[in-house]
Amino acid sequence: MLPKPNFGAAAIFYVIYIAGLVHFCVVPGVTGQSAMRGLVSGLLFGIIAYATYDLTNLVTLKGWSITLVFIDIAWGAVASAVASAVAVTVTMRVVPRA
Fold this sequence. Notes:
Layout: H1 7-31, H2 35-60, H3 66-94
Helix pairs in contact: 1-2, 1-3, 2-3
């Protein structure tokens, strides 16, 4: 591990991840006027993104456990789903319908 985290790389990742959530989850949810659509899209987006990371680590890193893979994918799925559903709900309440 690095002596200290690379916060610049972390910031870039989170900007890209949030942009992905907005594009693939929030916008379709707002367009469809459905927080549930945002929730389900966020859940799937989180599973795909976190599985990419966790399964790659399982293949390449010594000591990366299958238990950690399932826990982290579940966390990513739930966090992304909730964030997307909340963003859709707030946007629908704040932005007037055209």
